[in-house]
Amino acid sequence: MNLTAKISKVIPADYSLKEIEFIIGGVKFLMKCIEGGTFMMGAQKSNVNESNYDSKAFDWESPIHSVSVGNYYIGETLVTQALWKAVMGHTPMPDNKQWNAQDGIGDNMPAYNISYIDAKKFAATLNSIPEIQDAGLTFRLPTEAEWEFACKGGLYSKGYRFSGSDNPEDVAWFDFVSEGKPHPVKEKMPNELGLYDMSGNLFEWCRDWYTLYKPESQNNPRGPETGSRRVLRGGCWNYSSRACRSAYRLNDSSLHADSYYGLRLVMTIN
Q1: pLDDT value, residue 93
Q2: At 213, is the secondary structure helix, strand, or coil?
Q3: Domain range for residue 44?
Q4: Residue 102: predicted pLDDT
Q5: pLDDT for res 259
Q6: Which one of 137, 186, 190, 234 is separated from 198 by 20 to 30 angstroms, measured CA to CA?
């Protein structure tokens, strides 16, 4: 399949463009610029007077630690079914799992039944498009730190427990409100950066191998070099709202796909 991409603007190397629109196979998607900075990553429930206190925090969301990230672009939404089909030419894992009517089918539905390996192949296919290469761009999965920084609103964070609100029903599809299925993207409120569904709907794969946090400050962390399970973030339609909090962490095998696993792209300039 010979893919081509249309890019809305010439992309300068200084991340000065606030957003960039791409069109692949007739499908539009938007990447939003995240201005890097330093934030406190994680959550803790031991001291109400210390930063990132959350009575619903789990032990594996701490210790709280300072993290700095650089500039990057991130998808306004989860990768949709329309975009996945335009890029890959088929639904995820065609040999044994498909999108189905029970869990939701439609162009604006998020692409689900995606493993970490599937997500990596999707990004690699995007990166093989000549126009993407000529523009000096690389699509990939977010690091866990990049994901949480964007989820919390980046430099514009208001300190919400969920991505864009303290009320999960404003921003997230979770078990109590989802009617037992994922929903089309952009039906809930965005967060401070204009990003949708970072809480709820589908868990989103990150590039990091899963490990417990350490208290030391970090700069652009990439996680451990090896591991057995990858990180997923954000909560989903069949988990409780507790899992939709910005600090919640899940992990699973790179090979496992499920009806509540999807992905959101990050893009950097080479």
Answers
A1: 81
A2: coil
A3: 5-269
A4: 87
A5: 94
A6: 137
Q: In the structure encoding, which two tokens stand for residue 241, read together?
A: 């709202």
Give how many domains the chain has, as a whole number. Answer: 1
Angle at 207 between CA 205 and CA 211, to 5 degrees: 95
Q: Model pTM?
A: 0.97
Per-residue pLDDT reduced to its tens digit, 204-240 = 999 999 999 999 999 999 999 999 999 999 999 999 9
- Describe the crossing of helices 81-88 and 116-127 by its angle, rounded to 10 degrees: 60
| CATH of residue 78 | 3.90.1580.10
Cβ-based neighbour number of residue 20 at 10 Å: 19
Residue by residue, DSSP assigns 203-226 as EEEEEEEP----SS-EES----S-
Contact (Cβ atoms closer than 8 angstroms) between residue 260 and residue 238: yes
Residues sharing a CB contact under 8 Å with residue 96, sequence separation 6 or more, in sequence order? none
- The closest alpha carbon to 200, from 252, 164, 154, 254, belongs to 164
| Token pair 């200084």: residue | 14
CB 65 within 8 A of CB 41: yes
205 vs 116: CA distance, rounded Å: 6
Q: Locate all alpha helices (DSSP H) within the chain, ordered by sequence.
A: 81-88, 116-127, 130-134, 144-151, 168-171
* Three-state SS at 27: strand
**Structure-block tokens of residue 174:** 């979770």
Bridging pattern class, strands 37-41 and 137-140: unpaired
